[in-house]
From TrEMBL:
Signal peptide: none annotated. This is LRP1B protein. SUPFAM superfamilies: EGF/Laminin (SSF57196), YWTD domain (SSF63825). SMART domains: LY (SM00135). GO terms for molecular function: Wnt receptor activity; Wnt-protein binding. The gene is Lrp1b_1.
Length: 179
């Protein structure tokens, strides 16, 4: 799944399949300007920062069990969001500090470091990566991902895929080759 935020005409947090199909709004009320987004892949939670409402909130992948982690003026300048173990990590764009926040109750906020021009943060650790199953976009014997001549995107499950073409090309009738 692909998760993303939008704060155009109607602010929301959405999810869709990797090929863009099956778009689903998971948060569409009491939300104004969602920016940073982070996923807890193990427990299937979506965290986001709303810089207009000065809040950090969370829902499960279906948009249920919503609650506020933290609210207040200190949220106003947050950009970037990552989750690891018991904490959220974020960047305060006002003073360029990296913050650690207890993700269960919003307490225990600590400034860990200061980085010039930081706008995003990611945690790379083996435990945050899910095990990879064999999937529909694996390279075939001819070196083509999922048998697609240009781009292979996972669809509704890891067993299904959609082929797409680079700009300037159209998908052939076989659903795999680009012309």
């Amino acid at each position: 799944k692909l998760f993303f935020t939008d704060y155009g005409n109607a602010a929301k947090v959405e999810r869709c399949d990797m090929d863009g199909m099956n778009r689903t709004w998971i948060v569409d009320s009491k939300i104004e300007q969602p920016t940073a987004l982070a996923l807890d892949l193990i427990n299937k939670y979506v965290y986001w920062v709303d810089i207009y409402l000065d809040s950090v909130e969370v829902v499960d992948y279906q948009g249920r069990r919503r609650h506020t982690i933290m609210k207040g003026r200190q949220i106003r300048h947050l950009c970037g969001l990552a989750v690891f173990e018991n904490y959220l990590y974020t960047v305060n764009s006002d003073n360029l500090s990296i913050l650690r926040i207890n993700r269960y109750n919003g307490s225990d906020v600590q400034a860990l470091a200061r980085l010039d021009n930081a706008k995003e943060i990611r945690v790379y650790q083996k435990r945050t990566q899910t095990a990879v199953k064999s999937h529909a976009c694996e390279v075939d014997p001819y070196g083509m991902p999922g048998g697609c001549s240009h781009i292979c995107l996972l669809s509704s499950s890891y067993k299904a895929r959609t082929c797409r073409c680079r700009t300037g090309f159209i998908l052939g009738s076989d659903g795999r080759s680009c012309k």
